[in-house]
Amino acid sequence: MLYTNLKHLETAADHNQAISENENVMVICGRMGPMCIPVYGIAEELETEYRHVKFYDMEFDNPESRVIRSLPEVRGFMGIPFTIYYKNGKVVKATSSIQTKDQLTAILDREFAAPVNA
Amino acid sequence: MPDTMNRSKHYDAIVIGAGPAGLTAGIYLSRARLRTLIVSEGTVGGQMILTHEIANYPGVENISGYQLAGIMKKQALAFGCEIRSNVSVRNLEPVGEMKSVTLSDGSTCTSDSIVLTPGGRSRTLGVPGEDNFKGRGISYCATCDGDFFTNKEIIVVGGGNSALEEAVSLTKYASKVTIVHQFDHFQAFEHAVEEAENHPGIRFLMESTITGFYGNDNLEHVTIRNLKSGRIINYKTNGVFIFIGYVPNTEFLKGRIELNKWGEIVVHEDMSTGIQGVFAAGDSIAKRFRQVTTAVGDGTVAALAASGYLHELKVKHKQLISA
What pTM was estimated for this model as a whole? Predict the structure, then answer.
């Protein structure tokens, strides 16, 4: 169980709904471990700033997360979390392992545009 | 305090770091009705949030580091403490009655006192390719990424307790584990060394160090230099786990605060540093034991000492005005 303050995706259907109903989506697929927790923490903080992006997490060991683990964009990934950025339902970027706030915001700004009040 | 000062950015105390030491200092200072700001380079909680289970924190039977950090943060906020996370310190001016901290977002805050609790981080090898293959063959966490290396040959770098214990745990997945260590002996406890040495799935390359990581999309091989002979070999591997200890996050303090040869902050018994009004606590100070409980204790002492300093400072200013 992921005890973060992000919205959780429990099933593949939840995942598909999230990316079809929202233009800009970031999903962090991981565990409660040292490489993943900092990424959840940064995403929680960015939620208020990046209102045009929906932030979710999904438990890596949940069989339903196959919807992420089987993406062609994560082939070769050997470190969690798998962080996937979707625009209009399509993967525009995927990263493996821990990321800094600067790395995350650089991707968010490039793929989804910087927040208006930034 | 000059009238021209922008009060909205002036604090009684600025705490740099939001691990257990920094959050505790924030709780004590703000509860003492001192205007307090905590700034943190990373996520609130520091190294504590990386601990899956804390079972030896008195008063709490069992809790994750993430949850404990969340509670501490809530306590600090409830007492009026301000917290700004994921911002780093660009410049620090700790000398004099008026301290100044410039942050990576370009803002500058001033304060009458500073509590330094920047903590530490995992040490990296710092050799070519290390950044490129992070998450694509290089890992710093066996429990996170071990299962990606099932039936693969991997390397563990390091010779301390973490390296040897994680090497043994990685044999659950990997077909072969090679420990690469720079010295001819290990620093780990005897029982950990014994367990690793007696494990049939582990071999050793002593007095050796990795000098580069290579591959295309994923890690394919590394170069290893024997430190005694100078000979360099190519070594095929899909995974390298690095456990070479921690370093204090004190680079930004060099030349400003007294650090020892390991980069740890030198403090007195009351957590004061050599500079008036500057205190330090937690994993970044020179000390023997680094636990959540010791960080909380240090943070308490630093906050109480800072409160005392601030009280004396106010008395001094009042006397100057009335004189």
Answer: 0.76
